[in-house]
Description:
The protein has 11 helices and 7 strands. By secondary structure, the protein is an alpha/beta fold. The chain has one domain: Rossmann fold, CATH 3.40.50.720. The longest helix is centred in the middle third of the chain and has 29 residues, at about 150-180. The two termini are about 35 Å apart.
Amino acid sequence: MAPLPRRLRRAALVPAGALLRIASRPVGGGTGMTRAALGPLVGRPDAGGSVVMVTGASSGIGEAAARRLAAEGATVLLVARGAEALDRIASEIGASGAGEARPHPCDLTDLEAIDDLCERALAEHGAVDVLVNNAGRSIRRSVDRSGDRFHDFQRTMQLNYFGAIRLILGLLPAMRERGQGQVVNVSSAGVQIRTPRFSGYIASKAALEAFSDAVQAETREDGIRFTTISMPLVRTPMISPTRQYERIPALTPEEAGRLVVDAVSGRPRRVAPPFAHVLAAVDRVSPEAMDVVRSRVYRMFGE
């Protein structure tokens, strides 16, 4: 039998893990994607249903959100680099009889390819009602190991920021002309926390959030809604290289996908986990206190 202190620590992990999981559940979203909640977006006589473009739809959060959106009656445009995976997912959605999905392979680091994607989508569907910017690249590396790896910052910014901006600029005019539309940006709670070793990733997501906040003011009267989802940890291949995350509670891709769908329904401005709100508030009051916390976290975990 294990020593008493060890048994007590193990016993404490269960409620501690449950509490952390509760604190990690983002709040601020809708109440579920229903035809009543979506109002004119689903079942419109002129369009036959909402058209939702989901990037990063070949796996993880994007795939889960796309499947649920299609099941709720939307026509989902699946966007990612992997044409084979998109074809498979679209076929499975079609075969299930739960909605419609159409594959649109695209390298979102190629700005001209994004322009072509927008042109095809608008030509085929007239407009995209909802754009879900989910595709993303993460990089975990401390700054002292980044001096000769500037390309890591460039690649991350290219996909997470410039790619998303190019899509928004390509689809926004048609949304404004129709007087309705939504852009959902899947961001990270790390933007509020300023997690050490993720400076490149966090900076790219923070840039997209700042852009969206500024543009929201310009498009508010046109019926456009920008929604930012500050995702906590999600158990996807993106986090698999970081072994420390194996023992930290995380959402499943299905749970994260449901958050995306709820955000399309409720159209909130922001969705974020409670712990991120609390830490962001502390940071505003006392940045020095959060510097100490972040410094300790940085030293607790290795590269």
